[in-house]
Write a structure and sequence with these properties.
Number of helices: 5
Order of helices and strands: HHEEEEEHEEEEHEEHEE
Strand content: 15-25%
Radius of gyration: 19 Å
Distance between the termini: 16 Å
Amino acid sequence: MATLWTERPNDCKGSLPPFEDQVNLIRDRLLRSPAYLGGKIFQANVEWGSIDGEHTATLKSGTSSVVGPYVANISAVVKVSDIDFKFSSEGSLQGTNTLTDPSLMTLSLSGSAPTLEPFASDYATVTNNVKWLQARVATAYFIGKTGFRVGPPDRPRIKVHHKLFQIVPIYGPPRAQPNSLDWSTISTWPFRRKAIADSFSLLADTHRIVRPPAYDMHGYLIRPEMYRSRLVNATVELVFELTFRPLLPDQASIHPRISYSAHLLAIRTIQPPPGSTVTPREINVLHKLNPLVDIPLSTHRRTAY
C-alpha cells in the first residue's frame, strides 16, 4: 500500500520527471487504482456500503487484497472550472452571504472534461461510471439526483467540497503555538475581510482549520491566497469520498431525490493553468504529497490529507 511522504523518495530527489513522463506515470498509477473513474475496472471494484453510519462508496472485499469495508478513494482527472468557484479562503461566504452556523463553511469547486491527453480520452469512461454509480441507488421513487454531477446535461461538471472547520477534541494533547505558515488555526488563516475574521474568532477555542488539501504539480500545498490563480483552468486529479442521502419533497423540489456529496481528500495538480509557471518551494514547506503514489486506504471517513 502506498503511503504519504514528508521527504522525497530516492527516485524523486530534486525535480520530478519530464512533464510527458510524469503524465504517463500518473495515468499508469490511476489505471491500477480500483476506484479511478476513468478506468475500466471501476465497476468491478466499487459498491455502496455503510461507513460511520453513512451511505458511502466502498471497495468490494477482495479488491487488491482489501478486507473491507474500506472507503473508496475515488479519483477523476478534470479541468477546473471558473463557474461557481468557491475554493478560496472565505469559501461559501461570497459577497454579503452569511451562515447561521459559521462552522459549516465549505470550500467547493467543480471540473469538466480535460483537454490534456490521455485523460481527455478517459473522460467518456468517467461519465459512464458516474452514471452507473448513481444508478445503483436510483429507484422509481427517488428519481432526482443532486450535489455531485452539476451543470447542463451536455457539459456536466463534477463538484467536490471541503469542510473548513473541525471541532477541537475536549480531551487531547495541548496545541502548539501557531506560526504564520501554519494555517490550521483560525488566528493564522488568511481571511480576506476583517469582519469575517472577527466573526470566526469566536470559534477559536472550539474549532480548528482543516487545511484544504490542494497541491501543486510538485506535490506542495498551495497557499490559500493563490487558490484561484493556481487552480482555475488547471488539469487536476480530484480524490474524494462519495456519500449519498435520500431527500424527501421540500420547497426545492416536489419530487424525492438522492443528494450526493463528494468529500475532498486531495486536489493534485497535473498541469497548471495556461501561462503559469510553478516552481517547487524548498523552504517553509508544511506538507508534501508525492504526485506519483496513491493515498492510503481507510476504514473510516476522513476530512482531508
